[in-house]
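This part of the workshop introduces the protein records we will be handling. Each record describes a single protein and holds just a pair of labelled lines. Instead of coordinates, the fold is spelled out as a row of discrete tokens. To make this concrete, we reproduce a full record directly below:
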Amino acid sequence: MNNTLKNFFRLKWLSGKIAVIGVPYLWLLACSLVPFFIILKISLVEMEISNPFGTLLSYTDGIVELKVKISNYVFIAQDKLYVLTYLSSIKFAAITTAFCLFIGYPFAYFMARADASIRPTLMMLVMLPFWTSFLLRIYAWKGMLANNGIVNQFLLATGLIDTPIHMMNTSFSLMVGMVYTYLPFMILPLYSNLVKMDVRYIEAAADLGSTPWSTFWRITVPLSKAGIIAGSMLVFIPCIGEYVIPELLGGPDTLMIGHVLWDEFFTNNDWPMASAVTVVVILLILVPMGIFNKYQSNQVPERT
């Protein structure tokens, strides 16, 4: 009887564990894989006037036909516009990630080493921009970087320049907007990683005669590698498909794949081509997402 009860409770515990873990996984799979396969299916069909989703299978006179159209992918591979746009998106995303890391690491390090009583305040200051609408913040940069904007007015008033500097609709304005927008996504994972770091490693290095600079590069940076990777992926992945910032702050030399997607969907009304472009973007993002998931699971020794 005791063995029966033990087996019963063991089965109940296992079923509960499977339910707790399985249901969220099923939900995530349904919310990610199902939309992806819908987009993949649209990219492989011929668009019809009555049915923009098209059909892969057709049934005529007892014969089932599978029609797969790959010309969209062939066109993407052969057309320089798409290739250059993909490369441009990756380039701007990589530069944004590098600047966010360069600016965000000192911020995160200072927050992690600050007194525990002021860390919530510093965290609130990092999160403060999210209290304002994303579009309002981007439009504010338009007002600041315009030829008659705040920055040029200040430089003219101080006599540093004689004529306004053209900053809007350039690579500079695009990078300013991208770095400003995605900087918190770099700071937060870095702070989360650095604040858990065991400072006894740093103290031991100092006792052994290591200089602060050497300790930083040999101890702090390697131990914060997981946070660096996580923050970089959180910035790099959404930057590739960014649409609003390039549209409002960018110019003709800052074409990114988000704008191409918008044109294919809503200007050209070519859903299969737009879906093919989307699938290629997703495949480009899968690699950094895999790296992100790998390092996200790594644990850093906690401070005791």
